[in-house]
Design goal:
This is DUF2892 domain-containing protein. InterPro entries: TPR-like_helical_dom_sf (IPR011990). The protein has about 170 residues and is an all-alpha fold. It has two domains: about 45 residues, no CATH class; about 120 residues, Serine Threonine Protein Phosphatase 5, Tetratricopeptide repeat (Alpha Horseshoe). The protein contains ten helices and no strands. α4 runs antiparallel to α6, α6 runs antiparallel to α7 and α7 packs antiparallel against α8. The longest helix is centred in the first third of the chain and has 21 residues. The relative contact order is 0.08.
């Protein structure tokens, strides 16, 4: 919605006005304004369009996810690095059904930019391993599977990893 730097400027202005309210003796207003500025600071680190796209993806609404992602114009300028990683990660998931080459490009870019959660990194590597398997690159697929297995600390992807390892034996 707002550019990332505009969010910080708005938060700074609200905090400055909160300090003014404190000096005037309006402590309640100052506290409320500080809390209000925290919304803009939060949205600096977690882009609202990406959050809404994640909600759509959670409901398996891929068209809605694509719609929210398309609202981000020029992601290199509008998003911080980790957000760009998640932007590419979601595009990789969306393209994994249609175009494997495009999905691979997005997953690699997401891993290069960085993802915050180990589960997301493991999922991206697992998806890349599946793409590598379909393109008959067995060595790359096995290394990606091993990396995904190391990153899956909560054993949420154990079944998918085992299934892919069984499929690798057939190749």
């Amino acid at each position: 919605m707002f550019h990332k730097n505009i969010k910080l400027v708005i938060a700074g202005l609200i905090i400055a006005y909160a300090i003014y309210q404190f000096m005037e003796g309006n402590i309640g207003n100052g506290i409320a304004l500080i809390l209000f500025s925290l919304i803009f600071i939060f949205l600096y680190f977690r882009n609202e369009m990406i959050l809404l796209a994640f909600l759509r993806m959670r409901k398996q609404d891929m068209e809605g996810t694509q719609k929210w992602l398309d609202k981000i114009k020029n992601p290199e300028a509008a998003l911080i690095t980790k957000q760009q990683g998640y932007y590419n990660y979601m595009h990789g998931i969306l393209h994994s059904q249609k175009n494997l080459t495009q999905a691979e490009k997005y997953f690699r870019k997401a891993l290069k930019l960085g993802l915050t959660m180990d589960y997301d990194v493991a999922m991206a590597k697992l998806s890349l391993a599946g793409i590598a398997m379909q393109k008959r690159r067995k060595r790359e697929a096995t290394t990606l599977l091993q990396e995904a297995k190391k990153l899956d600390k909560n054993n949420m992807l154990t079944e998918q990893i085992k299934m892919m390892q069984q499929q690798m034996k057939r190749i």
